[in-house]
Structure formats: C-alpha cells, structure tokens
Task: structure prediction
Amino acid sequence: MPIHPVSTGLAFAVTSDFLQSPTSTFAPAGTPAHSVVGLSWLVYGITGGIFLVVGGLLVYALFRFRHRPSSPNADQEPAQVYGSNQIELSWTVIPILITVMLFLATTRVIFSTEHAGKPPEALDVTVIGHQFWWEYRYPKLGIVTANELHVPVSDPKHPTPTYLTMSSADTDHSFWIPRLAGKMDLIPNKVNTMWIDPETAGLYLGQCAQYCGTQHAKMLLRVYADTPEQFAAWVAHQQQTASQSPDAVEGKAVFEHNACISCHTVAGTVANGRFGPDLTHLASRDTFASGAVPLSRENLRTFVDDPSHFKPGVLMPPMHLNEHDLDLVTSYLVTLK
Amino acid sequence: MATQTPVPAAIDQTTETAPRRLVFEVLQDWISTTDHKKIGMLYIGYSLVFLVIAGFEAVLMRIQLAFPNNHAVSPQAFNRLFTMHGTTMVFFVGMPILFGFGNYLVPLMIGARDMAFPRLNAFSFWISAFGGLLLYFSYIGGDGMYGAGSAPDVGWWAYAPLTAHAFSPGHSTDYWTLAVFLSGIGSVGTALNIVTTIISMRCPGMTMNRLPLLAWLYLSMSLLTFVAVGPLSAAQIMLMLDRYLGSHFFDAQAGGSAVLWMHFFWIFGHPEVYVLVMPAFGFASEIIPVFSRKAIFGYTAMVAASIGICFVSLSVWAHHMFTVGLGPAGNAFFTLSTMAIGVPTGIKIFNWLATIWGGKVHFTTAMLFAVAFLFQFMLAGLTGIMLSVAPLDWQLGGSYFVVAHFHFVLVGAILFMIFAAFYYWYPKMTGRLLNEKIGKWHFWIFLIGFHLCFDLMHIPGMLGMPRRIYTYEADRGWFLLNFLVSTGAGIQTIGTLIFVYNMVWSYFKGEIAGPDPWDAWTLEWATASPPPAYNFATTPSVASRRPLWDLKHPEDTDGQYE
Result:
C-alpha cells in the first residue's frame, strides 16, 4: 500500500475527528464494556477529586509560602514544625476508606463480568491466535473461518451472547474489541474464556493487544454483529464446501500443485493444511491478511506474489509463481465465495 | 538563606597542590578506583551515555508513529527499538544512575569514609557496565531471526514463548538474557554494599532514628532489590536452559508455562518500579525541606511509609496480569493490594506538602524540578489507581494509556527528580554550581515537552491503541494525538540537550560552589566540594537529624524535638 503518510494523515485529522474513533472505550456497545465505563466514571470522579484537592493545596502552599526577598524578615528561617500524629493519622485513614470503597465497587464488576451465568442460547466460538492472524471455529455449527468473526446481535430482552474459548497456537496474543469488552489474552497451553453481546448490528474493530512478533501491529480484529436473519444466512453459507467454479479449474490445479495446500484448507478439496487461514470462503470476506488489506483481485495477486509487501514478517513465504500461474491462482481464489 | 555559614570542623582546611598527571595515569586511576565517589560518578556518567542512546531510540519510534502507515523504520527495526529502549532505560539508565547517586551520597550523608566493601563496589559497577556493552554489541553480533546484526526484539519483559528457540532463533535473545542477568549481579552487589554501609558504618551519634531520609530510602530500595532481582535472575537461567539444554519451563510447545514466566518477571518487575522510585523519593525528601527552609514533616511517618511500600510492593505483581485469566478471586486480590500501596504513597505526598506549608520556598532549578515531580508523581499515582481497578485494566492495560502512565512515573517523577538531584548535588561533585539561568530554560522546555508528550498519550490508549505497534490504521482517530505526542518528544530532546550543555559549560565556567552552597543540613555539606578521597578530615559526630542545622542554630537545635 504505497500510501503517502503525510497527506493521508492530515486528511484523516480533518475528516475523522478522534472523537469518532471506531475503537473508543467511551462508546460501549455491549454489557462488559458498559459495566467498565460505568465503573470508570466513579474512578475518574474520585481520582479527579483527589487531584483537585491535593493539587489545589499544593498550588496554594507554593504561592502563599514562597520566599519574599523584600519582606522584613526574609533572612530568618521559618518556624520549624516536625510533624503531628493526628494529621498523619487522618491522611492515613481517609485514603484507606476511599480504597475500601473503590475495591468493593470494583469487585462487583469483576464478578458480574467473569462469573456471569451462561444462557442456553449462547453461541460458542473457539478463538485461536496465530502469528499474525485469528482462527475462529464454531464447534456446534461445523464452521471454520479466519480473521472476520461473525456473531449474532444480542437483544437485551433475549440475550444471545457469544462465548469465546481462547488459546494460542504459538506466542501470546490478546483479543481486544474496545467497544464490546475488555481484552483477554490468548496464551498457548492455557484456555481462557470471555463473552461479548453486541447490542446493535454492525462492524466492531480492534486488534491484537499483546506483542506477538514482527507483525503484531497488523493483526487486526473485525467482529461483525449480524441480525438473526443475516447470521442464519451467513452460517448456512459457511457450512457449504468450497464452490467448484468451472472458470477456475486451471487455477485450482495450480493451487493444489503448489505448497499452498500444506498450510491452507479449502473444504471439499485436497487442500487441508492447518498452519494458515482457512480459505474455503475467502472471497466472502471484506478483508484478508488479518484485516490489514481490503479484499480485491489485485490485492490478492500482490499478496500471493509477495506476502511481505503488505505485511513484512508474515509467515507465508513468497511462492515464486510465474505471471501466468499467479493470474490463475488469483482467479481461483476470487471464486471461493 | 543565612549568609554566614559556620565551617564544620570536618572540613580539611589544608590545600593540596597535586602535579598535573598524564592522561594514562588519570585513566588508570578511574578504572582501578575503589573510591565510592569516583564509582558513583562512573555509574552516573555511564548512565548518561545510555540515557542519550535510549532517548534517541525513543525519538526514532516517535518519528515512525507521528503518521499512520509511516515507513520511517521497518517493523523489525521498530520492535528492536522498543525492546532496546525499555531494557536500556530500566537496567542501564535507571538502576545505575540511582546506584551512582547512592554510591556518592550515602557514605557522605552518614559520615563514613567509603562504602563497606569498596572492591565489591567496583566489581558491581564494572559487571553492570559490561552487561550494557553486551546488550549493545548485539546490534553487531546478534544474528536473530532476520540475519546478522539484529538486536533483541522480544520486548523488555520478553514474554514466553516468544523467547523460545522456535520463535526467536539466533542469538539476539541470548544477548538480552545475559545482559539483564549481568546487570542483576551488579545490582545485588551494590544493594548488599548499601545495606551493609548503612547498617554498620554510620558515624558516632547517627542512630537509625537520625538517618537522613535519603539513606532510609536507599536502604529500603536495596532490601527490595535483593528480593526482586533473585526471581529475575532465576528466570533468566531457566530461559537459557530452555533455549540450550532442552528444559521446558516456559516452552509452551512442549508443555511449559508462559504464565510462569509472567509471574517470575513481574515479581521482579513491579518491585523494580519501587526500586527506581524510592531513590527519587529520597532526593525529594532532602531537596524539598532545604528549599522550603523547614525540617521534613513527619520523619517517622516517612520512614514507616517507605518500609510499608517495600512490603506491599511485593504483593502487587499480578496487576500486570489482569488480562491473563487469573479468575475473579485473583483479580480482586491484586486490585486490593495495588490500591493499598496508594496509602503509604499518599502519606509521602502529604508529608512533602506539609513540609512546604509554612516554609519559605526558594524556587531554584532543583526545587522547580522537585515541585514538578510532586504534581506529576501524584498524577502517575492516580492513573495507577485507575489501572489497579481490574475491569479498567481489561480496557486500558496493554494500551498507550499504560505507556503514558508508567512514563509519568519514570520520566515525570523519577527523571525529574534525577534532574533535581543533578542541580542540587552537582556542585558537591564538581565544586561548581550548574548555571541557574540555563537550568530554568532546561526546566521549562523539558516540562512543556513532557506534558505535550505524555498527557496526550493517555488518550490514544482510551481510544483503543495498543502499545508496541510499529504503525496504525489511519481510520482509528489516533493520528492527531500521536503527531502531538511526537512533537512533545522532540521538545524534550531539546530540553535534554540544554541540560547536557549546562553540565559541560558549568564544569568549566560555573560559579564556585564552596562546601555548602544551599545552606543545607546534612553531612555531605560538611566537607569540601568536591570532597577529598577520605571524605572527612575528622570523623563527624552528630546529635540530631540535621547536624548542620544544629551547627548554624546552636540556640535552637534539632535534637530537642526528636
């Protein structure tokens, strides 16, 4: 993406005010994110109050007790005061009381989020972090996909939250969609869980929040909250095997005669690799390379030719295909709707 | 301030005239020295070199992040930059510069002639120095994942299993491991020295109850160093075993535990924050009273708070792990313990405030830095309270909010207090005052740069920007803030250059300081500037916490109020 940094940067500074950031923690759209924001106002209020009181006293003291060279007793030392047990006690006890109060409010939110009862309608998704992409498996629906997570919108009256069971295939990662919930780490050899319940349909963005290697920065997250109808249609589509388009027979042959199949799965074909993202319905997605690149024929061709063009450090090696084969493979990939 | 300063008997009035020495002789003197003052200055000089290097790394990162999708440095280079910046600043700037001041000041302030173990002192310095050189040699010798010449790129906390051979082939990670391990040996050596010196080498009359607060804080810091560095060194050895002898402590591919490394690292890592900040508290506890012209308020409470911080800081480490999946009970416990540390820390701030209250505040450059420290440390503490609330940490942990928070501690509190310490004790070390006019330029420019950079840096974190990303998407609304943050980094660079200029200029042309330029009260001012190798011509003896106050005010000595 040869984007000129200065011009795009300035353009976005004008058009996309930071108040409308799509990843703002102040624009919650799910229960866990709402409860954090609710708690945060209490915390910001208390800490802000402490700052104003203590900071105000400090400013006053510095002004009031400044050395005045012109005053008649400028050369005299001020009265020496060594301390006061009553005062020490008061500024020990008051902070302890504030601490206890904050702790109790916090504990409520911790338990309400981490010990929430799981309704029977909840959807289960297994999330596996990879260097540098996300694998999503829907065990009860028989779906495997990558990088774009589809979940049903959750009506507060009949909640249909999505429970994420998370682990990692390699290094540590962290799943963070600020508008839906706080982050949870994906750690190899450990299983974590979290839940999300987007209250309005739409796209929620985020990205990996635990440094995981060279391309940590472009391990982006996209969560699509679908209406029940959209979600049912999406599930039905994803459950099919890959389309076998007659236009792409040659491309399929190139794909299957190269190392592509060692790492990628295309359901219903000989390609059953597990190291890279599942490509069965690649062309039904909006983006690829973990949300880093908009999906288009041209971008796919560039990526297959040299994956590090978009993502330096990506684990997919360049395939060194000739121009002809490159065109054929690209033609095949775009048929994987 | 009083103009007539009585000369303490401890000052040697005879003047030495040493013949000019050859460069080689001077060099040999510094390399083989066991004088605590020279070792202290070696520590400080060495740290300042690394401060400039690691600061330059920060500037490169800020250039890269000034614009979305920028290409100033490659992702690989960026990952090395933040790893080297963090590792250098903590292990090869923060620790050694504070040990340097401790080395220089503690024996002088307790009326001793040197540290308890002078040769161990020299060994500790040189082994730490070797660690720093080893770390930077990796840029030449450390072939990592991307071929020869790559420095470590695993982040300064080097989470497993990214450090395993499968994900970090080559030797770059080994350079990191060994450098940090060596630095740990040096730190433990110096900590041992400081503890022994304070316990057993105080001058007659200096009971623990009369120990200057700076010495108390160095004592607490050193005790904490023992406890904190042990697990880190153990973890480094385990990591080496994993990488070379086929053990599986952290190697998750073979059943090891990534979380185990986190526990080992943070049981070091969080006390380490207090190891770094306690000397800054010590500087503040000396500088604020002198420039407020009042004794410290609540000496006993200050000592108790230091010891309290020491203990409580050992039980807070897993607040770095709220998103690891500790479960609700674990998260609740570490929320409480972390909030609890705010109580003794608050006591310290209140006592400094009460020291200023009713005083006559002289706004020297040292005091200006100390005042800025008070505000910035309070803010850092308050954002720390926010992050101790586990659910807030689920959102803000690992984001730029955290980066801003700990830079408020490390720069806003610790570095500001280090600058204050330079303005306050440079005359003792060199015999000449730092220029106050240049100093005020340094202060104001650095202050503006600091706040432009680190105040605004909190916001991208709240808007979902994670740390350690080499670039970011243009549609996230992070650009303008990052651009201003980078501008602030540039302004701080200018401020730092002014400081370096002041140090050099004042060394040759600064005003002659004399033994006691600030009309201060502790024993380091009862000897010449710079002090002779033996510190005191006669061993001083004290009768209160402020021996020089007693000397200057025989009608109203301190001892009667103890």
Remarks:
- The domain at 16-59+85-235 of chain A is CATH 2.60.40.420 (Immunoglobulin-like).
